[in-house]
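Workshop exercise sheet. Pairs work together: one partner reads the sequence aloud, the other fills in the structure field after running the prediction. Swap roles for the next sheet.
Pair: D.N. / O.F.
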Amino acid sequence: MDPRIHPLTDVDDTYVTVGAVSTAVRVVNMNRAELDLVNDSDQTIYLGFGNDAVIGSGKRLNTQGGSYHMGPENLWHGTINAICVDGGANLCVSEGST
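Structure field:
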């Protein structure tokens, strides 16, 4: 959904501590309109969409600010998982819903 047509009614700003095993970042949200994920750590983070995250696979977020944005053109409503090599990586999350 285009937020210009369907304004956001809720924004959830939070963080997730990503582990060395696949870690849930976001659950299914059929009202998701946008999502920003920003790696705020010194470890590379990998994302899995709809399945477990795997090192070296999926979307890669580089260290110290690597990010991924979802908006109307690439929106995913399903689960999102993340993983890093050593665990303890901070992933900043901002999810807007309608």
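Discussion prompt: DSSP finds no helices and eight strands in the chain. What would you look at next?
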